[in-house]
Amino acid sequence: MDKDLKDKTLGELEQIVVELGQKKYLAGYIFGFIHVENVTEISQITPLSKAFRQQLSEQGYYISALTITKILTDKDGTVKYLFTLADGSRIETVLLPEGKSGPMDSHRKTLCISTQVGCNLGCSFCATAKIGFTRNLTAAEIVDQVNVVEADTGKITNVVYMGMGEPLLNYDAVIKSAGILNHPKGKNIGIRHITISTCGITAGIKKLAQQELHPRLAISLNAPTDALRTQLMPINAKYPLAELFKAIRVYQNSTHQRVTFEYVMIKGINDSDEHAKTLVKLLHGFMCHVNLIEHNPYPGCDFAGSGSERIKRFKTILERAGIETTVRFRMGRGIKAACGQLGAEQLKKQ
Ligand code: SF4
């Protein structure tokens, strides 16, 4: 058993504490000091007796911590963190503040977190795909992205699992981390403020529908037909649209939640009026919201963003059909905020 205390739920900590012959309630201090006070040493959990802290350390328990390797701040307020993990792997996390005077003044702070080191799904528009896949993150490594950024900039209000990696291919650690972030004795981030974004792993979506906690679900859609989607996202060949939408139906029937569809707007590829009209047909009857995001090009990428006029026209077609649509501005262009860009660059330098 791994002895990282950050990787444990409150229930697991209670079990450890009891097995060590201590009172169960002491686990609450360990959980709170790790996830609210952001401590990284057992010796800092001062409500525990010195003897118990020593006992934990002697038994091999520890608190893992990510190391910040680089922080880049864009003039639009976006902040990108490059973290180094204990094994030397690198991951990225992006803070998207919604305030006028930068991250320290924003009341709503959304953190886009990674779930894997790299990714093996090979989406053709994505910088992370170029890195390839190394490994899944632990729940502690996922949660710690929030802990470290919060210690740096203050309270994180919203978390989106939309950074490097496919969250539903690291299902157990992702669900465990969402439970830890949501726990009232920890960060207490409302479950409706936690979003899991998937490329469409249908088995994972159906499994998520059975969970007790239901985070918001976002689908990275990006194309309205199987042919185009498979071209942009090879995973679509395994989970084609009909199957994906069946799984979304299962999720909605069980949670009664609106689903968000993310649609990256790529010039001349998926952004015509025809594409918009086909999308309208595809989404017919679904309780949903569409986010249009202009493609953020990175060096060596063959695609360009659609431009504001085209995006506006696309949005109008969706809205006329009654589909609620938001345009998400490209944030952090100056700091390579598209997922994987910074990691890819660092890997090139190694
Ligand atoms: S878009 Fe997401 S799933 Fe696709 S390659 Fe990039 S990180 Fe992986």
Architecture overview:
By secondary structure, the protein is an alpha/beta fold. 36% of the residues lie in helices and 19% in strands. The chain has 12 helices and 12 strands. The chain has helices spanning 10-19, 26-35, 50-58, 127-131, 139-153, 171-182, 202-210, 226-232, 241-255, 273-283, 308-320, 341-349, and strands at residues 67-73, 79-84, 90-98, 108-113, 116-118, 133-136, 158-161, 194-198, 216-220, 259-265, 288-294, 324-328. The strands form 2 sheets. The protein has a 10-stranded mixed beta sheet with strand order 1-2-3-4-7-8-9-10-11-12, with helices on both faces. The protein has a two-stranded antiparallel sheet with strand order 5-6. α1 crosses α2 (26-35), α5 (139-153) packs parallel to α6 and α10 runs parallel beside α11. The protein is elongated and about 70 Å long. Residues 342-350 have low confidence and may be disordered. Iron/sulfur cluster binds at residues 119, 121-123, 126, 128-129, 164-166, 199, 220, 339.
Attribute tags:
disordered C terminus; binds iron/sulfur cluster; alpha/beta; two-stranded antiparallel ribbon; 10-stranded mixed β-sheet; 350 residues; 12 strands; 12 helices
